[in-house]
Amino acid sequence: MKLVAGNWKMNGDKAMAQALVADLAARQAAKRAASAVVLCPPAYLLPQVAAAAAGKRLNVGGQDCSAEAGPGAFTGEISATMLRDAGCDYVIVGHSERRARHGESDALVRAKAERALAAGLIPIICVGETLEQRQSGDAVAVVRRQVAGSLPDSARQQVVVIAYEPVWAIGTGKTATPDDVRAMHGEIRAQVAGLGPQVPPVPLLYGGSVKPDNAAELMAQPNVDGALVGGASLKAADFWAIVEACR
Ligand code: PEP
C-alpha cells in the first residue's frame, strides 16, 4: 500500500482543521482509501487533528522535531516525544524549507530522525536538489550525499521513509517529469539497497507540486511508494484525489 502525507506547512487554523479532517474522514468512511494517509498540520493543531482523526484511519505527523531529546531549555522547539504524546505516528524531518531557511545540515536531520525513531515515530526524511544543482548535472550526487548523511544508522532495522522532493518543484507548480522521478527513485533505491538488507523496505515518496491531474502518472512509476503533498493537501477534494490516484 502506498503512503500519502499532507504537509500543511504554516497554514490553517482550528476551524479549517476541523472542517478538513471531517471532510477527509467522511471520504474515508465512504470508501476506504487506496493508500495510508498522514496529515501533518502545524504543531499547535496536532492534538485537535489527532483527536478528530482517531479511529478514522487517518494518521497524524509533525512537520519537524528537535534533535534534542529534552525535556529542557530549548525554547521554541518541540521534541519527538511531545509529538508522540500529541498523537503523532510520523514526523517530517529535513524538509527543504528547513534546510534552506534554517540551515539544517544532513547531520542535524539525521539526529532528528534518530530522535523520532527513539520516540516511536516514523521519520519522513526529505532530500532533493536545487534547480542550480540539477542544471549543473549534480542532482544525483547531491541527493546521494543527503541520503547518506541524513539516514540514521538504524534505518535498516527500523521503519524510515525517504521523500524525494526536488526543491525547484516545491510550491512552484513545476513537477519533475515521470522520467526524472523514475531515474532518481531508482538511484535512491539502489543506494538504500547498498546499505544491506532492509527489514522492512524503505518507502520512497515523491514530493513537488503533486496535484490530482499528475498524481496517477507519478504514482505509477517504479520505486514510487507514495507522495508528500504540500499545497494540494489543504483542499480535501484535491488531497483525496491524490490518495485515490494510488489505487
Ligand atoms: C512540500 O511542501 O513538501 C511540497 C511538496 O509542496 P507542494 O506540493 O506544494 O509542491
The gist of it:
The chain has 10 helices and 8 strands. The chain is α/β, with parallel strands linked by helices and 247 residues long. It has a single domain, classed as TIM Barrel (Alpha-Beta Barrel), CATH 3.20.20.
Describe the structure using short key phrases.
single chain, 247 residues, alpha/beta, TIM Barrel, eight-stranded parallel barrel, 10 helices, binds phosphoenolpyruvate
Would you write up a description of this structure?
There is one protein chain. Helix 7 crosses helix 8. The chain has one domain: Aldolase class I (TIM Barrel, Alpha-Beta Barrel). Helix 1 links the parallel strand 1 and strand 2. The chain is α/β, with parallel strands linked by helices and 247 residues long. Phosphoenolpyruvate binds next to strand 8.
Sequence-ordered SSE layout with sheet pairings:
Layout: E1 2-7, H1 14-30, E2 35-40, H2 46-53, E3 59-62, H3 80-85, E4 90-93, H4 96-101, H5 106-118, E5 122-127, H6 131-135, H7 139-150, E6 161-164, H8 178-193, E7 204-207, H9 212-219, E8 226-229, H10 236-244
Helix pairs in contact: 1-2, 5-7, 7-8, 9-10
Bound molecules: phosphoenolpyruvate.
Mean pLDDT: 96
**Uncertain parts:** none
Number of domains: 1
Count of distinct strands = 8
- For the record, the CATH architecture stands as Alpha-Beta Barrel
Under CATH, the topology can be stated as TIM Barrel
